[in-house]
Specification:
single chain, 617 residues, mainly alpha, 3 domains, two-stranded antiparallel sheet, two-stranded antiparallel ribbon, 25 helices, 4 strands, globular
Amino acid sequence: MMNLAWVVPLFPLGSFILLLLFGRRWKQRSAYVGIAAAFLSLLLALAVLVDRLGGSTYEANWTWMTIGGVTLTVGISATALNAWMLVVVALVSWLVHVYSQGYMAGDERFSTFYAYLGLFTFAMLGLVLSPNLLQAYIFWELVGLGSFLLIGFYFYKEEAKAAAKKAFIMTRIGDVGFFIGMMLLFWQTHSFDYDDIFRAVGDGTLSPGMTTLAVILIFIGAIGKSGQFPLHTWLPDAMEGPTPVSALIHAATMVAAGVYLVAALFPLYEASHAAMMTVATIGGVTAIFAATIGLVQTDIKRVLAYSTISQLGYMMLALGAGSYVAAIFHLTTHAFFKALLFLAAGSVIHAVRTQNIEEMGGLWQRLPWTAPLFLIGALSISGVPLFAGFFSKDEILAAAWTNGPRLLFWLAVAAALLTSFYMFRLFFLVFAGKARHHEDAHEAPASMVAPMLVLGVLSIASGYMQTPWFGSFLGEWLTDGAYRHEAAPGWIAVLATIVSFAGIFLAWLMYGAQKMPRDWLSARVPYVDELLRRHYYIDDIYRLTVVSLVSWISRLLAYVDRFLVEGLARLAVGIVGAAASAGSRGQNGQAQTYGAVTVAGLAILVVIFALTGGYWL
Protein backbone atom coordinates (compact mmCIF):
# COMPACT_ATOMS: atom_id res chain seq x y z
CA MET A 1 0.00 0.00 0.00
CA MET A 2 2.97 2.34 0.33
CA ASN A 3 2.91 2.88 -3.42
CA LEU A 4 -0.55 4.41 -2.96
CA ALA A 5 0.57 6.88 -0.30
CA TRP A 6 0.28 9.67 -2.87
CA VAL A 7 -3.50 9.16 -2.84
CA VAL A 8 -3.80 10.06 0.86
CA PRO A 9 -3.77 13.86 0.31
CA LEU A 10 -6.01 13.62 -2.76
CA PHE A 11 -9.15 12.83 -0.76
CA PRO A 12 -9.19 16.17 1.14
CA LEU A 13 -8.15 17.95 -2.06
CA GLY A 14 -11.12 16.36 -3.81
CA SER A 15 -13.46 17.50 -1.04
CA PHE A 16 -12.06 21.03 -1.33
CA ILE A 17 -12.77 21.13 -5.07
CA LEU A 18 -16.21 19.52 -4.80
CA LEU A 19 -17.34 21.82 -2.01
CA LEU A 20 -16.15 24.91 -3.83
CA LEU A 21 -18.19 23.85 -6.87
CA PHE A 22 -21.31 22.42 -5.26
CA GLY A 23 -21.16 23.43 -1.59
CA ARG A 24 -23.77 26.17 -1.88
CA ARG A 25 -26.23 23.64 -3.24
CA TRP A 26 -25.41 20.93 -0.68
CA LYS A 27 -25.36 23.32 2.33
CA GLN A 28 -25.31 21.32 5.60
CA ARG A 29 -24.79 18.08 3.66
CA SER A 30 -21.31 19.39 2.78
CA ALA A 31 -20.17 17.98 6.11
CA TYR A 32 -20.67 14.43 4.88
CA VAL A 33 -18.36 15.05 1.91
CA GLY A 34 -15.62 16.50 4.12
CA ILE A 35 -15.98 13.81 6.79
CA ALA A 36 -15.98 10.99 4.22
CA ALA A 37 -12.88 12.38 2.48
CA ALA A 38 -11.02 12.76 5.78
CA PHE A 39 -12.02 9.23 6.82
CA LEU A 40 -10.79 7.72 3.54
CA SER A 41 -7.48 9.55 4.02
CA LEU A 42 -7.22 8.09 7.51
CA LEU A 43 -7.94 4.55 6.31
CA LEU A 44 -5.33 4.74 3.58
CA ALA A 45 -2.81 6.36 5.95
CA LEU A 46 -3.32 3.46 8.36
CA ALA A 47 -2.81 1.01 5.50
CA VAL A 48 0.45 2.76 4.59
CA LEU A 49 1.58 2.60 8.22
CA VAL A 50 0.81 -1.13 8.48
CA ASP A 51 2.58 -1.80 5.19
CA ARG A 52 5.60 0.17 6.40
CA LEU A 53 5.72 -2.03 9.52
CA GLY A 54 6.61 -5.00 7.38
CA GLY A 55 8.80 -3.30 4.82
CA SER A 56 11.45 -0.72 4.17
CA THR A 57 11.26 2.91 3.15
CA TYR A 58 9.37 3.53 -0.07
CA GLU A 59 10.12 6.46 -2.35
CA ALA A 60 8.89 7.33 -5.83
CA ASN A 61 9.93 10.33 -7.91
CA TRP A 62 8.77 11.75 -11.21
CA THR A 63 10.59 14.32 -13.33
CA TRP A 64 8.98 17.73 -13.06
CA MET A 65 11.32 19.81 -15.22
CA THR A 66 14.92 19.93 -16.36
CA ILE A 67 16.81 23.22 -16.24
CA GLY A 68 20.29 23.05 -17.70
CA GLY A 69 21.84 19.98 -16.17
CA VAL A 70 19.57 19.96 -13.12
CA THR A 71 16.47 17.79 -12.96
CA LEU A 72 13.73 18.77 -10.53
CA THR A 73 11.45 16.01 -9.33
CA VAL A 74 8.20 15.57 -7.44
CA GLY A 75 7.28 12.44 -5.57
CA ILE A 76 6.36 10.76 -2.32
CA SER A 77 8.39 9.33 0.51
CA ALA A 78 7.08 6.79 3.01
CA THR A 79 9.72 6.74 5.72
CA ALA A 80 8.97 5.74 9.30
CA LEU A 81 8.49 9.40 10.25
CA ASN A 82 6.31 10.20 7.23
CA ALA A 83 4.07 7.17 7.69
CA TRP A 84 3.61 7.97 11.38
CA MET A 85 2.81 11.63 10.76
CA LEU A 86 0.34 10.72 8.02
CA VAL A 87 -1.76 8.84 10.56
CA VAL A 88 -1.52 11.53 13.25
CA VAL A 89 -2.52 14.32 10.85
CA ALA A 90 -5.28 12.31 9.16
CA LEU A 91 -6.73 11.12 12.48
CA VAL A 92 -6.90 14.54 14.12
CA SER A 93 -8.23 16.09 10.91
CA TRP A 94 -11.02 13.50 10.66
CA LEU A 95 -12.03 14.06 14.30
CA VAL A 96 -12.10 17.83 13.74
CA HIS A 97 -14.25 17.31 10.63
CA VAL A 98 -16.74 15.27 12.66
CA TYR A 99 -16.77 17.77 15.54
CA SER A 100 -17.32 20.72 13.19
CA GLN A 101 -20.62 19.29 11.97
CA GLY A 102 -22.16 20.19 15.32
CA TYR A 103 -20.07 23.25 16.16
CA MET A 104 -20.54 25.05 12.82
CA ALA A 105 -24.18 24.01 12.30
CA GLY A 106 -26.25 26.89 10.99
CA ASP A 107 -23.29 28.96 9.80
CA GLU A 108 -24.01 30.69 6.49
CA ARG A 109 -20.64 29.62 5.07
CA PHE A 110 -20.82 26.06 6.35
CA SER A 111 -19.72 24.47 3.06
CA THR A 112 -16.90 26.99 2.63
CA PHE A 113 -15.59 26.09 6.07
CA TYR A 114 -15.42 22.41 5.14
CA ALA A 115 -13.77 23.28 1.83
CA TYR A 116 -11.05 25.21 3.67
CA LEU A 117 -10.56 22.31 6.10
CA GLY A 118 -9.99 20.05 3.10
CA LEU A 119 -7.40 22.40 1.60
CA PHE A 120 -5.62 22.73 4.94
CA THR A 121 -5.49 18.97 5.46
CA PHE A 122 -4.30 18.39 1.89
CA ALA A 123 -1.45 20.86 2.37
CA MET A 124 -0.22 19.26 5.60
CA LEU A 125 -0.44 15.72 4.22
CA GLY A 126 1.43 16.84 1.10
CA LEU A 127 4.15 18.39 3.25
CA VAL A 128 4.54 15.17 5.22
CA LEU A 129 4.90 13.05 2.07
CA SER A 130 7.42 15.34 0.34
CA PRO A 131 10.78 13.68 -0.46
CA ASN A 132 12.58 16.94 -1.21
CA LEU A 133 12.88 20.47 0.09
CA LEU A 134 11.35 22.23 -2.92
CA GLN A 135 8.17 20.17 -2.79
CA ALA A 136 8.06 20.59 0.99
CA TYR A 137 8.38 24.36 0.55
CA ILE A 138 5.45 24.47 -1.87
CA PHE A 139 3.20 22.59 0.54
CA TRP A 140 4.64 24.64 3.41
CA GLU A 141 3.28 27.76 1.73
CA LEU A 142 -0.04 26.05 1.05
CA VAL A 143 -0.31 25.33 4.77
CA GLY A 144 0.13 29.06 5.34
CA LEU A 145 -2.59 29.83 2.81
CA GLY A 146 -4.97 27.39 4.47
CA SER A 147 -4.35 28.93 7.87
CA PHE A 148 -4.96 32.42 6.46
CA LEU A 149 -8.33 31.38 5.06
CA LEU A 150 -9.43 29.60 8.25
CA ILE A 151 -8.17 32.17 10.77
CA GLY A 152 -9.91 34.87 8.76
CA PHE A 153 -13.06 32.79 8.26
CA TYR A 154 -15.14 35.37 10.14
CA PHE A 155 -13.83 38.04 7.79
CA TYR A 156 -16.60 40.47 8.73
CA LYS A 157 -14.89 40.86 12.12
CA GLU A 158 -12.02 43.32 12.13
CA GLU A 159 -10.17 41.21 14.72
CA ALA A 160 -10.36 38.12 12.49
CA LYS A 161 -9.11 39.99 9.44
CA ALA A 162 -6.23 41.49 11.41
CA ALA A 163 -5.35 38.08 12.91
CA ALA A 164 -5.32 36.40 9.49
CA LYS A 165 -3.06 39.08 8.03
CA LYS A 166 -0.78 38.96 11.05
CA ALA A 167 -0.43 35.18 10.83
CA PHE A 168 0.29 35.36 7.11
CA ILE A 169 2.91 38.12 7.44
CA MET A 170 4.65 36.76 10.54
CA THR A 171 5.01 33.29 9.08
CA ARG A 172 6.21 34.77 5.77
CA ILE A 173 9.07 36.41 7.66
CA GLY A 174 10.21 32.98 8.76
CA ASP A 175 9.60 31.54 5.31
CA VAL A 176 12.18 33.91 3.84
CA GLY A 177 14.77 32.20 6.01
CA PHE A 178 13.52 28.78 4.92
CA PHE A 179 13.76 29.75 1.25
CA ILE A 180 17.27 31.21 1.52
CA GLY A 181 18.51 28.18 3.47
CA MET A 182 16.96 25.82 0.93
CA MET A 183 18.60 27.66 -1.98
CA LEU A 184 21.98 27.62 -0.21
CA LEU A 185 21.74 23.84 0.08
CA PHE A 186 20.73 23.58 -3.58
CA TRP A 187 23.63 25.83 -4.60
CA GLN A 188 26.08 23.57 -2.78
CA THR A 189 24.59 20.15 -3.62
CA HIS A 190 22.69 20.81 -6.90
CA SER A 191 19.75 18.91 -5.46
CA PHE A 192 16.68 19.47 -3.31
CA ASP A 193 16.31 15.78 -2.38
CA TYR A 194 16.73 15.01 1.31
CA ASP A 195 18.87 11.94 0.66
CA ASP A 196 21.24 13.80 -1.68
CA ILE A 197 21.69 16.59 0.86
CA PHE A 198 22.32 14.12 3.69
CA ARG A 199 24.95 12.35 1.56
CA ALA A 200 26.60 15.70 0.81
CA VAL A 201 27.02 16.27 4.54
CA GLY A 202 28.42 12.79 5.05
CA ASP A 203 31.01 12.96 2.26
CA GLY A 204 32.12 16.51 3.02
CA THR A 205 30.64 18.16 -0.08
CA LEU A 206 28.71 20.43 2.25
CA SER A 207 31.11 22.27 4.54
CA PRO A 208 30.35 22.55 8.27
CA GLY A 209 30.02 26.33 8.04
CA MET A 210 27.58 26.18 5.14
CA THR A 211 25.61 23.43 6.86
CA THR A 212 25.26 25.53 9.99
CA LEU A 213 24.20 28.63 8.07
CA ALA A 214 21.67 26.78 5.93
CA VAL A 215 19.98 24.85 8.73
CA ILE A 216 19.74 27.89 11.00
CA LEU A 217 18.07 29.80 8.16
CA ILE A 218 15.65 26.91 7.65
CA PHE A 219 15.05 26.87 11.39
CA ILE A 220 13.88 30.49 11.15
CA GLY A 221 11.07 29.16 8.97
CA ALA A 222 10.27 26.59 11.64
CA ILE A 223 10.28 29.33 14.29
CA GLY A 224 7.62 31.20 12.35
CA LYS A 225 5.38 28.22 11.65
CA SER A 226 5.66 26.73 15.14
CA GLY A 227 5.15 30.04 16.93
CA GLN A 228 8.52 30.08 18.65
CA PHE A 229 10.03 33.19 20.21
CA PRO A 230 10.35 35.81 18.76
CA LEU A 231 7.93 35.04 15.87
CA HIS A 232 5.21 33.74 18.18
CA THR A 233 2.88 36.73 18.34
CA TRP A 234 0.57 35.57 15.55
CA LEU A 235 -0.44 32.35 17.30
CA PRO A 236 -2.55 33.75 20.19
CA ASP A 237 -4.30 36.12 17.78
CA ALA A 238 -5.15 33.16 15.54
CA MET A 239 -7.80 32.28 18.13
CA GLU A 240 -10.14 34.60 16.20
CA GLY A 241 -10.88 31.67 13.89
CA PRO A 242 -13.53 29.05 14.68
CA THR A 243 -12.56 26.76 17.57
CA PRO A 244 -12.26 23.59 15.40
CA VAL A 245 -9.69 25.51 13.36
CA SER A 246 -7.74 26.27 16.53
CA ALA A 247 -7.74 22.57 17.36
CA LEU A 248 -6.45 21.61 13.92
CA ILE A 249 -3.81 24.35 13.76
CA HIS A 250 -2.51 23.74 17.28
CA ALA A 251 -2.67 19.96 17.32
CA ALA A 252 -1.51 18.40 14.09
CA THR A 253 -1.10 20.79 11.19
CA MET A 254 0.40 24.24 10.99
CA VAL A 255 2.34 24.54 14.23
CA ALA A 256 3.41 20.90 14.00
CA ALA A 257 4.90 21.64 10.57
CA GLY A 258 7.88 23.48 12.04
CA VAL A 259 8.75 20.64 14.41
CA TYR A 260 8.25 18.12 11.62
CA LEU A 261 10.58 20.05 9.30
CA VAL A 262 13.42 20.07 11.83
CA ALA A 263 12.82 16.36 12.50
CA ALA A 264 12.82 15.55 8.78
CA LEU A 265 16.17 17.36 8.41
CA PHE A 266 17.56 15.99 11.67
CA PRO A 267 20.73 14.49 10.09
CA LEU A 268 21.62 18.00 8.91
CA TYR A 269 21.10 19.52 12.35
CA GLU A 270 23.09 16.73 14.01
CA ALA A 271 26.05 17.71 11.82
CA SER A 272 26.17 21.18 13.40
CA HIS A 273 26.64 21.65 17.13
CA ALA A 274 25.87 25.36 16.79
CA ALA A 275 22.58 24.61 15.06
CA MET A 276 21.59 22.08 17.71
CA MET A 277 22.35 24.57 20.48
CA THR A 278 20.31 27.22 18.66
CA VAL A 279 17.31 24.92 18.37
CA ALA A 280 17.56 23.83 22.01
CA THR A 281 17.98 27.38 23.31
CA ILE A 282 15.06 28.80 21.33
CA GLY A 283 12.93 25.86 22.48
CA GLY A 284 13.84 26.16 26.15
CA VAL A 285 13.38 29.93 26.24
CA THR A 286 10.05 29.70 24.41
CA ALA A 287 8.77 27.01 26.80
CA ILE A 288 9.22 29.15 29.91
CA PHE A 289 8.42 32.45 28.16
CA ALA A 290 4.99 31.32 26.93
CA ALA A 291 4.19 29.49 30.17
CA THR A 292 4.59 32.69 32.19
CA ILE A 293 2.20 34.57 29.91
CA GLY A 294 -0.34 31.76 30.19
CA LEU A 295 -0.58 32.45 33.93
CA VAL A 296 -2.62 35.63 33.50
CA GLN A 297 -4.76 35.00 30.41
CA THR A 298 -8.53 35.25 30.83
CA ASP A 299 -9.60 34.01 27.39
CA ILE A 300 -10.00 30.21 27.44
CA LYS A 301 -8.57 29.82 23.94
CA ARG A 302 -5.63 32.13 24.57
CA VAL A 303 -4.62 30.12 27.63
CA LEU A 304 -4.49 27.07 25.37
CA ALA A 305 -2.68 29.05 22.67
CA TYR A 306 0.16 29.99 25.00
CA SER A 307 0.29 26.42 26.26
CA THR A 308 0.77 25.33 22.63
CA ILE A 309 3.67 27.72 22.18
CA SER A 310 5.22 26.40 25.39
CA GLN A 311 4.75 22.73 24.45
CA LEU A 312 6.25 23.33 21.01
CA GLY A 313 9.21 24.82 22.82
CA TYR A 314 9.58 21.50 24.64
CA MET A 315 9.68 19.69 21.29
CA MET A 316 12.34 22.04 19.92
CA LEU A 317 14.33 21.58 23.12
CA ALA A 318 14.18 17.81 22.63
CA LEU A 319 15.38 18.11 19.03
CA GLY A 320 18.19 20.44 20.03
CA ALA A 321 19.20 18.02 22.79
CA GLY A 322 19.51 15.28 20.20
CA SER A 323 16.41 13.31 21.16
CA TYR A 324 14.57 13.02 17.88
CA VAL A 325 12.34 10.26 19.31
CA ALA A 326 11.32 12.32 22.37
CA ALA A 327 10.32 15.24 20.14
CA ILE A 328 8.10 13.12 17.89
CA PHE A 329 6.71 11.29 20.91
CA HIS A 330 5.64 14.58 22.49
CA LEU A 331 4.40 15.87 19.13
CA THR A 332 2.12 12.82 18.98
CA THR A 333 0.77 12.96 22.52
CA HIS A 334 0.40 16.73 22.27
CA ALA A 335 -1.64 16.36 19.09
CA PHE A 336 -4.17 14.29 21.01
CA PHE A 337 -4.43 16.12 24.32
CA LYS A 338 -4.27 19.59 22.74
CA ALA A 339 -6.96 18.72 20.19
CA LEU A 340 -9.03 17.40 23.11
CA LEU A 341 -8.54 20.59 25.12
CA PHE A 342 -9.49 22.85 22.22
CA LEU A 343 -12.54 20.80 21.28
CA ALA A 344 -13.62 20.74 24.93
CA ALA A 345 -13.08 24.50 25.08
CA GLY A 346 -15.28 24.78 22.00
CA SER A 347 -17.96 22.78 23.79
CA VAL A 348 -17.74 25.18 26.75
CA ILE A 349 -17.99 28.22 24.47
CA HIS A 350 -20.90 26.57 22.65
CA ALA A 351 -22.66 26.19 26.02
CA VAL A 352 -22.03 29.57 27.65
CA ARG A 353 -21.44 31.87 24.64
CA THR A 354 -18.36 33.51 26.10
CA GLN A 355 -14.61 32.89 26.06
CA ASN A 356 -13.89 34.83 29.26
CA ILE A 357 -13.08 32.31 31.98
CA GLU A 358 -13.82 34.88 34.69
CA GLU A 359 -17.46 34.76 33.58
CA MET A 360 -17.61 30.98 33.88
CA GLY A 361 -17.80 28.57 36.78
CA GLY A 362 -19.79 25.64 38.11
CA LEU A 363 -20.00 23.89 34.74
CA TRP A 364 -19.01 20.43 36.02
CA GLN A 365 -22.63 19.46 36.59
CA ARG A 366 -23.98 21.10 33.45
CA LEU A 367 -21.41 19.59 31.07
CA PRO A 368 -21.16 15.96 32.26
CA TRP A 369 -19.13 14.80 29.24
CA THR A 370 -17.06 17.88 28.44
CA ALA A 371 -15.89 18.49 32.02
CA PRO A 372 -14.23 15.10 32.70
CA LEU A 373 -12.79 15.03 29.18
CA PHE A 374 -11.26 18.47 29.69
CA LEU A 375 -9.86 17.18 32.98
CA ILE A 376 -8.18 14.29 31.15
CA GLY A 377 -6.56 16.75 28.74
CA ALA A 378 -5.44 18.99 31.59
CA LEU A 379 -3.95 16.06 33.51
CA SER A 380 -2.11 14.89 30.41
CA ILE A 381 -0.59 18.25 29.49
CA SER A 382 0.35 18.75 33.15
CA GLY A 383 2.41 15.56 33.09
CA VAL A 384 0.49 13.67 35.75
CA PRO A 385 1.68 10.03 35.95
CA LEU A 386 -0.20 7.43 33.90
CA PHE A 387 -1.36 10.07 31.40
CA ALA A 388 0.30 10.39 27.98
CA GLY A 389 1.91 13.76 28.61
CA PHE A 390 3.81 12.40 31.60
CA PHE A 391 5.74 9.87 29.53
CA SER A 392 6.58 12.18 26.62
CA LYS A 393 7.52 15.13 28.82
CA ASP A 394 9.68 12.88 30.99
CA GLU A 395 11.65 11.81 27.90
CA ILE A 396 12.27 15.46 27.01
CA LEU A 397 13.45 16.31 30.52
CA ALA A 398 15.74 13.28 30.48
CA ALA A 399 17.20 14.34 27.12
CA ALA A 400 17.70 17.91 28.34
CA TRP A 401 19.53 16.67 31.44
CA THR A 402 21.65 14.13 29.59
CA ASN A 403 22.60 16.10 26.47
CA GLY A 404 21.64 19.73 26.95
CA PRO A 405 22.89 22.60 29.09
CA ARG A 406 21.70 22.35 32.67
CA LEU A 407 20.07 25.78 32.46
CA LEU A 408 17.71 24.59 29.74
CA PHE A 409 16.78 21.56 31.84
CA TRP A 410 15.79 23.75 34.78
CA LEU A 411 13.88 26.11 32.48
CA ALA A 412 11.92 23.09 31.25
CA VAL A 413 11.21 22.00 34.84
CA ALA A 414 9.98 25.50 35.71
CA ALA A 415 7.79 25.52 32.61
CA ALA A 416 6.30 22.18 33.70
CA LEU A 417 5.37 23.68 37.08
CA LEU A 418 3.76 26.72 35.46
CA THR A 419 1.93 24.54 32.93
CA SER A 420 0.19 22.46 35.57
CA PHE A 421 -0.67 25.64 37.49
CA TYR A 422 -2.26 27.62 34.65
CA MET A 423 -4.06 24.59 33.23
CA PHE A 424 -5.73 23.88 36.56
CA ARG A 425 -6.34 27.57 37.13
CA LEU A 426 -8.29 27.31 33.89
CA PHE A 427 -10.03 24.10 34.97
CA PHE A 428 -11.13 25.40 38.38
CA LEU A 429 -12.33 28.75 37.01
CA VAL A 430 -14.44 27.06 34.33
CA PHE A 431 -15.79 23.93 36.01
CA ALA A 432 -15.53 24.42 39.79
CA GLY A 433 -17.21 26.85 42.16
CA LYS A 434 -20.64 28.36 41.80
CA ALA A 435 -22.50 28.64 38.51
CA ARG A 436 -22.38 32.18 37.13
CA HIS A 437 -25.63 32.91 35.35
CA HIS A 438 -25.44 30.06 32.82
CA GLU A 439 -28.66 28.28 33.68
CA ASP A 440 -29.25 27.49 30.01
CA ALA A 441 -25.82 25.88 29.56
CA HIS A 442 -26.17 22.40 28.11
CA GLU A 443 -23.95 19.59 26.87
CA ALA A 444 -22.82 19.56 23.26
CA PRO A 445 -24.46 17.26 20.69
CA ALA A 446 -23.14 13.75 20.05
CA SER A 447 -21.24 14.86 16.93
CA MET A 448 -19.10 17.05 19.18
CA VAL A 449 -18.81 14.70 22.16
CA ALA A 450 -17.79 11.58 20.17
CA PRO A 451 -14.50 13.03 18.81
CA MET A 452 -13.64 14.24 22.31
CA LEU A 453 -14.17 10.73 23.68
CA VAL A 454 -11.74 9.29 21.12
CA LEU A 455 -9.18 11.96 21.95
CA GLY A 456 -9.71 11.36 25.67
CA VAL A 457 -8.75 7.72 25.25
CA LEU A 458 -5.73 8.66 23.12
CA SER A 459 -4.65 11.29 25.65
CA ILE A 460 -4.09 8.42 28.06
CA ALA A 461 -3.22 5.44 25.88
CA SER A 462 -0.77 7.10 23.46
CA GLY A 463 1.79 7.48 26.22
CA TYR A 464 2.23 3.74 26.59
CA MET A 465 3.89 3.24 23.22
CA GLN A 466 7.16 4.54 24.67
CA THR A 467 7.53 3.50 28.29
CA PRO A 468 9.98 1.48 30.39
CA TRP A 469 7.18 -1.03 31.14
CA PHE A 470 5.65 -1.69 27.74
CA GLY A 471 8.67 -1.21 25.52
CA SER A 472 9.86 1.51 23.17
CA PHE A 473 7.63 0.89 20.18
CA LEU A 474 7.81 4.43 18.85
CA GLY A 475 11.57 4.68 19.28
CA GLU A 476 12.11 1.34 17.55
CA TRP A 477 9.74 2.41 14.80
CA LEU A 478 11.26 5.83 14.10
CA THR A 479 14.82 4.47 14.07
CA ASP A 480 14.07 1.24 12.18
CA GLY A 481 15.13 -0.86 15.15
CA ALA A 482 18.29 1.11 15.94
CA TYR A 483 16.83 2.88 18.98
CA ARG A 484 18.99 2.96 22.09
CA HIS A 485 17.32 4.19 25.25
CA GLU A 486 19.75 6.32 27.21
CA ALA A 487 19.31 5.68 30.90
CA ALA A 488 18.43 8.87 32.77
CA PRO A 489 18.50 9.39 36.53
CA GLY A 490 15.33 8.13 38.16
CA TRP A 491 14.95 11.32 40.16
CA ILE A 492 14.00 13.20 36.97
CA ALA A 493 10.66 11.37 36.76
CA VAL A 494 10.14 11.93 40.48
CA LEU A 495 10.91 15.64 40.11
CA ALA A 496 8.55 15.94 37.13
CA THR A 497 5.78 14.33 39.18
CA ILE A 498 6.42 16.61 42.15
CA VAL A 499 6.31 19.83 40.11
CA SER A 500 3.19 18.63 38.31
CA PHE A 501 1.28 18.02 41.53
CA ALA A 502 2.73 21.18 43.08
CA GLY A 503 1.29 23.29 40.28
CA ILE A 504 -2.10 21.58 40.57
CA PHE A 505 -2.13 22.00 44.35
CA LEU A 506 -1.26 25.69 44.12
CA ALA A 507 -4.02 26.23 41.55
CA TRP A 508 -6.46 24.43 43.84
CA LEU A 509 -5.49 26.64 46.78
CA MET A 510 -6.08 29.81 44.77
CA TYR A 511 -8.97 28.92 42.47
CA GLY A 512 -10.51 25.70 43.81
CA ALA A 513 -10.59 25.97 47.59
CA GLN A 514 -9.90 29.74 47.41
CA LYS A 515 -7.61 29.58 50.44
CA MET A 516 -5.20 32.00 48.78
CA PRO A 517 -6.13 35.33 47.19
CA ARG A 518 -6.35 35.22 43.41
CA ASP A 519 -4.63 38.59 43.13
CA TRP A 520 -1.57 37.31 44.98
CA LEU A 521 0.77 38.13 42.09
CA SER A 522 -0.75 41.46 41.07
CA ALA A 523 -0.95 42.68 44.68
CA ARG A 524 2.70 41.93 45.51
CA VAL A 525 4.47 42.54 42.21
CA PRO A 526 2.06 44.57 40.06
CA TYR A 527 4.74 45.44 37.52
CA VAL A 528 5.36 41.72 36.85
CA ASP A 529 1.63 41.14 36.48
CA GLU A 530 1.41 44.02 34.01
CA LEU A 531 4.46 42.73 32.14
CA LEU A 532 2.80 39.34 31.68
CA ARG A 533 -0.56 40.82 30.71
CA ARG A 534 1.18 42.91 28.05
CA HIS A 535 3.00 39.81 26.79
CA TYR A 536 6.39 41.27 27.71
CA TYR A 537 5.54 44.22 25.44
CA ILE A 538 6.70 42.21 22.42
CA ASP A 539 3.80 43.39 20.26
CA ASP A 540 4.38 46.97 21.40
CA ILE A 541 8.07 46.72 20.57
CA TYR A 542 7.26 45.39 17.10
CA ARG A 543 4.69 48.15 16.63
CA LEU A 544 7.16 50.88 17.60
CA THR A 545 10.10 49.48 15.64
CA VAL A 546 9.40 47.12 12.76
CA VAL A 547 5.84 48.23 11.99
CA SER A 548 6.72 51.92 12.30
CA LEU A 549 9.81 51.51 10.12
CA VAL A 550 7.93 49.59 7.44
CA SER A 551 5.09 52.15 7.53
CA TRP A 552 7.59 55.01 7.17
CA ILE A 553 9.33 53.30 4.25
CA SER A 554 5.98 52.59 2.59
CA ARG A 555 4.94 56.24 2.94
CA LEU A 556 8.29 57.36 1.54
CA LEU A 557 8.00 55.02 -1.43
CA ALA A 558 4.40 56.13 -1.98
CA TYR A 559 5.60 59.76 -2.02
CA VAL A 560 8.40 58.93 -4.47
CA ASP A 561 5.99 57.00 -6.66
CA ARG A 562 3.31 59.69 -6.59
CA PHE A 563 5.41 62.82 -6.95
CA LEU A 564 8.68 61.71 -8.55
CA VAL A 565 7.87 58.78 -10.81
CA GLU A 566 4.37 59.92 -11.73
CA GLY A 567 5.54 63.56 -11.73
CA LEU A 568 8.25 62.81 -14.29
CA ALA A 569 5.74 60.90 -16.37
CA ARG A 570 3.28 63.81 -16.22
CA LEU A 571 6.10 66.23 -17.13
CA ALA A 572 7.03 64.14 -20.16
CA VAL A 573 3.39 64.00 -21.20
CA GLY A 574 3.11 67.77 -20.78
CA ILE A 575 6.22 68.43 -22.88
CA VAL A 576 5.06 66.14 -25.65
CA GLY A 577 1.59 67.69 -25.48
CA ALA A 578 3.00 71.22 -25.68
CA ALA A 579 5.24 70.26 -28.60
CA ALA A 580 2.33 68.64 -30.36
CA SER A 581 0.18 71.70 -29.74
CA ALA A 582 2.89 73.99 -31.08
CA GLY A 583 3.35 71.77 -34.09
CA SER A 584 -0.35 71.67 -34.80
CA ARG A 585 -0.50 75.47 -34.87
CA GLY A 586 2.08 75.44 -37.63
CA GLN A 587 -0.09 73.17 -39.76
CA ASN A 588 -2.46 75.96 -40.89
CA GLY A 589 -2.31 75.50 -44.69
CA GLN A 590 -0.56 78.85 -45.39
CA ALA A 591 2.48 78.70 -47.71
CA GLN A 592 4.26 81.60 -45.96
CA THR A 593 4.15 79.71 -42.63
CA TYR A 594 5.73 76.63 -44.18
CA GLY A 595 8.38 78.79 -45.84
CA ALA A 596 9.23 80.50 -42.57
CA VAL A 597 9.54 77.16 -40.77
CA THR A 598 11.81 75.84 -43.52
CA VAL A 599 14.08 78.90 -43.36
CA ALA A 600 14.22 78.68 -39.56
CA GLY A 601 15.15 75.02 -39.74
CA LEU A 602 17.90 75.66 -42.25
CA ALA A 603 19.23 78.48 -40.08
CA ILE A 604 19.40 76.17 -37.08
CA LEU A 605 21.28 73.58 -39.12
CA VAL A 606 23.77 76.21 -40.33
CA VAL A 607 24.41 77.38 -36.77
CA ILE A 608 24.97 73.81 -35.58
CA PHE A 609 27.29 73.20 -38.54
CA ALA A 610 29.27 76.32 -37.76
CA LEU A 611 29.61 75.53 -34.07
CA THR A 612 30.70 71.94 -34.56
CA GLY A 613 32.87 72.41 -37.58
CA GLY A 614 30.82 69.87 -39.45
CA TYR A 615 31.92 66.94 -37.26
CA TRP A 616 28.37 66.06 -36.44
CA LEU A 617 27.82 64.88 -40.01
